[in-house]
Amino acid sequence: MAAVGAAALVLPAAPAIAADTEDPAAGPQSRLALTMTPGLHSPGSEYTLECQPPGGTHPDAVGACAKLSAAGDFDKLVPTGAMGRQGLHDPVTVSARGTWLGGEVAWSKTFGNSCEAITATNFVFRF
After folding, report:
1. d(CA 127, CA 123)
2. How far is CA 112 from each of CA 33, 80, 94, 124, rounded to the nearest angstrom?
3. Structure pTM?
């Protein structure tokens, strides 16, 4: 199913900082609130994702941070795998709000169902 609607924001490129110059006391450089609106057949949910270093309430913060870092933009996440309910029409909207490497992020996209949203975002919204 094709995405129903979209809003995009390009994530800023990672600054060139040597690993030994980072201040671990400064905390994560990126903090995002990731949400999925509820559909008729899927519950809504919200998790936090922190990166540099990975953390927050996201169940796979390490993987999600790696995927976002590689893509550089939510719209450039490469869809991976497949999940059930691909034909079920149960629209959900996923969104990310917060900061990524110091830049503001406000991104959202609507999909035909939660499974489609999860696979289209390379499982970043699998929670």
Report:
1. 8
2. 21, 17, 11, 17
3. 0.75
